[in-house]
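1st attempt posting a full record on here, be nice pls
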Amino acid sequence: LGLREQGGRRELLGALNQYLLEQKSRERQVVIVVDEAQALDGGILEQLRMLSNFETETSKLLQIVLVGQPELRDLLARPELTQLNQRITVRFHLTALDRAETADYVRHRLAIASGGATREIFTKAALKRIHVHGRGLPRLINQICHRALLVAFAADRSRVTRRLLDQAAEELGDSLGARRPVAPRAGRTKRIAAGVVLGVALSGSAFLGAKLWSSEISTEWLP
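the predicted structure (as tokens):
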């Protein structure tokens, strides 16, 4: 936020409150986004609840967004976090991607990494296998795509075929999960994230002649 205030807790909170009031006067909304929120301890979450007390007579001065894995639901259900849990006004649970969404996700990720190029790196058969092995979970999809691009690069192939994709999945082995990949049942029932408002970390890395899949890309939203 650019604040350089020094002092104790009271002074710091006072400076933050003044900053929030100034932003409101400029019709700006301040938002804190906490990724991997399931890793926070109860003490930090309680401090976030206290920060949510900044408000005027008509509106909140600070919006807080928690993004996390399913464990976040269990964390918020703890008795000592009841007050925080009750203050959550919006919740969204992202389910697993279906086959079409998986293909769109991969194409979108590659288009961003390649500056908008529309070249099909993965064959249609390979895209189907990505969904089977990844079970619609972006984290697993990223891992498979990463390895598949490396496998194709090592084999001097310009496209990732079903065979290369399956080879990549076999090399990943247990990192894709304990159970063997199977085609998901109809419907989108697997909950893969939880929180107040939830996003998906679009990450992964590989290169095919040039770097196409960035490993350190920041959290973004699916289109």
